[in-house]
Amino acid sequence: MPKITYIEHDGTEHNVDAEVGVTVMNAALDNLVPGIDADCGGECSCATCHVMVAEDWMPKVGQPGESEESMLDLNPERQPNSRLSCQIAVSDELDGLVVQLPEFQF
Amino acid sequence: MAELTKPLMVDLDAADVPLAEIDVSQRELWEQNKKYPFFKRLRDEAPVHYCQDSEFGPYWSVTRYDHIMEVEQNWQHFSSDPTIVIQDPEEDFQLPMFIAMDPPKHDDQRKAVQGVVAPANLKNLESTIRSRVEEILDGLPIGETFNWVDKVSIELTTQMLATLFDFPYEDRRKLTRWSDVATGGPETGVVDSEEQRREELFECLSYFQGLWHERVGQEGNDLVTMLANSEATQDMEPQEFLGNLVLLIVGGNDTTRNSITGGVLALNENPGEYAKLRNNPRVIPNMVSEIIRWVTPLAHMRRTCLKDYELGGQKISAGDKVVMWYASGNRDERAIPQPDEFIIDRQRARQHLSFGFGIHRCMGNRLGEMQLRVLWEEISKRFHKVEVVGEPKRVPSNFVHGFTELPVRLHPL
Fold first, then answer.
1. Is B110–A104 a contact, with Cβ atoms under 8 angstroms apart?
2. Where exactly are the structural domains of chain B?
3. Does the pLDDT of residue B7 top 50, yes or no?
4. Residue B283 DSSP SS3
5. Is the pLDDT confidence value at B6 over 80?
6. Does residue B1 carry a pLDDT above 60?
7. How confident is the model at residue B130 (pLDDT cuts 50, 70, 90)?
8. Is B315 helix (H, G, I), strand (E, B) or coil?
9. Would you give the DSSP letter of residue B240?
């Protein structure tokens, strides 16, 4: 199973074995990683599963799609490497992925 | 020919009314809190329902959680322009505000002000909120009956609003008044006439214009300074300034006010839940989400269909009025287990519709949650029970879903 590392704002790391096909959001929820609220349940409609993807992973993870872009755009704490974790599907290619969690979900 | 009068839903049994005649917009249903059986019927039998004839003209009701989500996500088909309430704006009195706009203008104006309620700023506000809550709670009368709405819900939210606007503190109840006037016409008894309503709203405008002029070119973290100095909002016409003020006043006022009141009522109606809270105050953050779902302080949002669209097997045509009933979606058994139960330690309590979803999602959601959390933390330190000792009085509105009166008595620890 691909490994994903979530780093909380205070630096606490959570290493998770994620199933291929689930979202990075669900992998966090299923493993009780704090800091992801997922209020809309993965519908790309609330932006409370915001993560910052480690720079060297950005090429593999890719840029947000149109509807994700419109949600991220309204987040005042958005960074160039911001993504909504409900829109990133876990794959073997993403084995070792590292994402940072923001201090707050908006 | 005798004039046809529409049947009053509130006098009827939801199970017996022909589907086509159901009109959930009638304010009596809301004032007397009898809407839920009608919504259940619609969810089960006609989840996307057309009401041909109502006080507000013909409209579609969207009552299931998933369908509401579908409409929320699709702003390209379902526009927020010209208004987000079931009642159409008056042609000679339009109040443009960003909640009632579509991208890109919506995004630009929203971005100008949302920083004030962004979580980073809230960290600094928490201690202010807490000291005001403490002061309000410590000043409440013990051993006598009083109206919780006035002494706590209104007082706390009004103080908060005054802080966010950096509004002269001694005049703060003007904000409460303007909020009530903005959402209630003569039919609700808030004002005597439409003229009076407009007059009072213009008074609101001119008061704020005074503050605006003082703050142009100044630095500050309050909403007026932000509006006056942001590129997206600094050139607004007076009506648009008023519209956005109304949005921020109502958004920060009625909603939290009614969640504060509704939470007290819900805990009294569910003594087992009140016991859970007493035994474990750590449940408060989760309880806050459950209160916001349970109360659903704004009962609906309205969209206007721009292009024909099929939803739940119904054909919605361009130009049609579409009402998303959050009050119904939050009780949809398809999406929320045991939705008619108030459960303060409910799992996934944050998954509710009260803040809306998509690009118009409530920007003050974290502030509202924080106010409720701090309030309940401080109540728990002081009182064994806030006891409801009389019937609540509800607002006769299908939009502001709340209370004008809740008689209570305090039982200190």
1. no
2. 9-412
3. yes
4. helix
5. no
6. no
7. very high
8. strand
9. H
- Tell whether omega for the bond before B104 is within 30 degrees of 0, i.e. cis: yes
Instruction: Tell me the CA distances in angstroms from B211 to B4, B228, B308, one per residue in order.
Output: 51, 10, 45
Residue with tokens 């994620």: A18
Contact B75, B358 (CB under 8 A): yes
Residue range B289-330, pLDDT digits in tens: 999 999 999 999 999 999 999 999 999 999 999 999 999 999
Distance from CA of A25 to the nearest CA of B (A): 14
Strands B300-305 and B78-79: antiparallel
CA-to-CA dists, residue B408 to B264, B336, B396, angstroms: 9, 31, 21
Q: Report the amino acid identity of residue B297.
A: P
Pairwise CB contact (< 8 Å): A40 & B366: no
Residues of B with Cβ-Cβ distance to A70 under 8 angstroms: 103, 107, 359
The reply to whether residue A76 touches residue B118, judged by beta carbons under 8 angstroms, is: yes
Going from the C-alpha of B355 to that of each of B91, B197, B255, B295, B364, the distances in angstroms are 29, 27, 10, 12, 9
pLDDT at B3 over 60: no
The mean pLDDT of A83-96, rounded to a whole number, is 97
The interface pTM score, or ipTM, of the predicted complex is: 0.93
Contact B53, B18 (CB under 8 A): no
Name the pLDDT band for B120 (thresholds 50, 70, 90).
Answer: confident
Cα B256 from chain centroid (whole Å):
7
* pTM higher than the cut 0.80: yes
- Asked if B63 and B299 count as a contact pair (C-beta separation under 8 A), the reply is no
Q: What is the DSSP letter of B293?
A: H
Count the neighbouring beta carbons within 10 Å of the beta carbon of residue B6: 11
Across residues B184-208, what is the average pLDDT?
Answer: 91
Q: Which domains occur in chain A, in start order?
A: 3-100 (3.10.20.30)
Partner A contacted by B357 (CB < 8 A): yes
Q: Beta-carbon neighbour count of residue B155 at 10 Å?
A: 22
Identify whether the C-beta of residue B351 lies closer than 8 Å to the C-beta of residue B290: no
Q: What is the DSSP letter of A71?
A: H
Closest CA to A14 of A6, A23, A3: A6
Distance from CA of B75 to the nearest CA of A (A): 10
In angstroms, the CA A26 to CA B237 distance is: 45
Question: What is B9-412's CATH number, 1.10.630.10, 3.40.50.10610, 1.10.520.20, 3.40.50.150?
Answer: 1.10.630.10
Question: How many Cβ atoms are within 10 Å of A53's Cβ, its own excluded?
Answer: 24
pLDDT in tens, B142-189: 999 999 999 999 999 999 999 989 999 999 999 999 998 988 888 888
Q: What are B235's two structure tokens? A: 């050139």
